[in-house]
């Protein structure tokens, strides 16, 4: 089984040359610096096969592979609430392909919601330069329908209708906590 | 600057041949499987320098280094509460050396507490086979005193007096949520 591709940090989408991940990392740094919330992206999990321990210098990993995360990418705490989300971008204009999600991420969000966590996706339509918070419960509906022969993507119009638009800013670049406030 | 040593998973402490980290991972799997809580260890952060992309097979990381985490190792959600903690073991019997913690971990726990997160350390005295939950607020007291010329370790007797003893079990191996219940 092949692991995920090299982290999207290394490809440049977006007008300002920042990926959604970079924009979120910058937003999270802004939020933490200003005492608003503590949210971090988890490191990409790596399966390490071979390590060298040279004398008088740092250990060097000589063989390792990207492995699939068992959770979503981001979590943290905001005013006593546990936040858990994943961030996805698509170049499609008309819909968001569900293949961007994996079963384990859906399972993880369901488990967090059972513990009263706040779970959602941040979806960016790159060509449109539009970003939305989309509730995990809505995502589950499409996910489950897909398994029963339903459509393989979420229409843009559905995300506009039921998601929460995040007006893109400068500081923070993605002020997603304003959208989270509407979930609380 | 040298990164952290190879994850402690690879050294075997403890009677049953499991490290504290392995015991906690098993406990977290137990908790999640039984719908009690969702807590995960974050992957060790790795700084990747060189990656090969062979045709028809997975990307291979050829050069990478362990880097220092900017947060604690564990976080998650339990009955609507955000949990954040680090796990540390010592072979010392009389005290727990503060050098096991890093300033960024302390800063991270302070930031999470400001957001009403539940923060603590799980400390294992390996030779004694005793495990304690120790509140972050108590840890901060010793940490700050150390910076003002205070002692470089927390006495075992202090941890017995103010920590919460976690009776080691089989399933889960470290039933730390029973101790967390006393913080809520
Ligand atoms: Mg992602
Ligand atoms: Mg640790």
Provide the CATH architecture of chain A: 3-Layer(aba) Sandwich
Low-confidence stretches of chain A: 1-15
Largest interface: A-B, 45 and 45 residues
Describe the largest sheet of chain A. Answer: 6 strands, mixed
- Tell me the overall shape of chain A: globular
Question: What's the level 1 CATH class of chain A?
Answer: Alpha Beta
- Say how many strands of chain A there are: 10
Cα gyration radius of chain A (Å): 18 Å
Under CATH, the topology of chain A can be stated as Trna Endonuclease, Chain: A, domain 1
Bound molecules: magnesium ion
Oligomeric form: homodimer
Explain what you see:
2 copies of one chain form a homodimer. With 184 residues, chain A is an alpha+beta fold. Chain A has a single domain (8-181), classed as 3-Layer(aba) Sandwich (Trna Endonuclease, Chain: A, domain 1). Chain A has 5 helices and 10 strands. Chain A has helices at residues 20-33, 103-114, 136-147, 156-162, 176-181, and strands at residues 38-41, 46-52, 60-66, 74-78, 81-90, 95-97, 118-125, 130-135, 153-155, 164-166. In chain A, strands 1-4-5-7-8-10 form a 6-stranded mixed beta sheet, sandwiched between helices. The longest helix of chain A is centred in the first third of the chain and has 14 residues, at 20-33. The termini of chain A are far apart. One magnesium ion is lined by residues 73, 86-87 of chain A.
């Amino acid at each position: 089984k092949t692991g995920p591709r090299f982290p999207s940090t290394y490809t440049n989408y977006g007008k300002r040359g920042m990926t959604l991940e970079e924009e979120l990392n910058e937003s999270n740094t802004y939020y933490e610096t200003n005492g608003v919330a503590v949210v971090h992206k988890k490191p990409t999990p790596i399966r390490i096969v071979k390590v060298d321990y040279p004398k008088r210098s740092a250990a060097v990993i000589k063989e390792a592979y990207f492995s699939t995360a068992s959770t979503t990418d981001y979590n943290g705490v905001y005013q006593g609430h546990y936040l858990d989300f994943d961030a996805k971008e698509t170049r499609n204009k008309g819909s968001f392909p569900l293949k961007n999600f994996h079963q384990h991420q859906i399972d993880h969000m369901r488990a967090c919601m059972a513990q009263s966590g706040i779970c959602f996706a941040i979806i960016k339509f790159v060509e449109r330069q539009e970003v939305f918070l989309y509730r995990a419960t809505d995502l589950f509906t499409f996910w489950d329908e897909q398994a029963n022969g339903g459509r393989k993507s979420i229409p843009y119009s559905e995300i506009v209708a039921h998601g929460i638009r995040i007006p893109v800013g400068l500081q923070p670049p993605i002020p997603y906590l304003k959208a989270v406030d509407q979930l609380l």
